[in-house]
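In this supplementary section we document a worked example of the pipeline. Step one takes a protein sequence of length 143 as its only input; no multiple sequence alignment statistics are reported here. Step two produces a three-dimensional model, which step three serialises into structure tokens for compact storage. The input and output of this example are shown verbatim.
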Amino acid sequence: MNVFSLRATQLTEDRPELAAAVGPLLKSREAIEQQIEDLDRKVLRLARDNAQVRRFMTVPGIGPITALCYLATIDDPARFKKSRSVGAYAGLTARRYASGEVDWTGRISNVAIRCCEVTSTKRPTCCSLVSQSGQCSKLGASA
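The serialised model returned by step three reads:
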């Protein structure tokens, strides 16, 4: 039992009607915490067993979930001729339109693969996996 559960139990000891309602909720919370711990162990085991994922995790801010997600998204890096192509595939490059005298650079695509957006709080961190130099473009940093 953690501090929250102990405190909730202490506060409901003298009130049986409240204990009847809080007790099952605390048991459910404990079961969910156990499932989260089991899933965390499985993710860490997957990350530890893959050399490429361990290399991704050397980038500051990239943990096992982001690294595994990136690996699943990119799959075989040999299919990209340049590292810049990976950023475009993941939707991390700006949309560009050029025709005759018209030339404008738009925003980063909304179609970006959600993996980078969900698992990484900073798009530049995700970009650094893509860039050979480890530096993000100003476009990625401003998003």
